[in-house]
What we know:
The chain is an alpha+beta fold. The chain has six helices and eight strands, in the order ββααααββααββββ.
Amino acid sequence: MLHKLPRKAVPSSSTPPGSIRRVTWARISGTPAVMFALALTAGVCAQNGSAAGSVVAPADAEARIRTVLDEQVAAWNRGNVAAFMQGYWNSPDTEFVGSNGIVRGWQPVLNRYRKVYPSRAAMGHLEFSGLEIQMLCPEAALVVGHFHLQRRGDAPAGVFTLVFRKFPEGWRIVNDHTSAAAPQ
């Protein structure tokens, strides 16, 4: 069961110095899909006997997550969407959240990538930067970063939030929330 979290006072750049603005968890986390993914992740941590954010993860967890992301970038830059998708949990519960809405399920996410990026030229050259990995517990992590595509006629870029979970086959993305930045 999800519980409403208490309001938290946080400073804002638009708030005069010395004042605080009240925000809710929904404003902090973004969409209901991200909130659900984080609640689900907290449940995973609790089931495994650890409170989210309170347990030190295995030393190699961050390195393994970075390896998944590096493998995704390499697959993308080869034009191999199927190999890129190996970084996602192959489940009907996998979610991709973007400007066109929410896509649920590994296969529908793959279909979305193939539709939006139908050719090697449309895929361009991908780079990730500014990666921040926060271990929520030994079995779950939150990753934020920037993506940059370089294509012949444009250079789309933006930010993403990924929820990773550890499975027997390794670390996989269970929720991807990607937002494109406005063209400069």
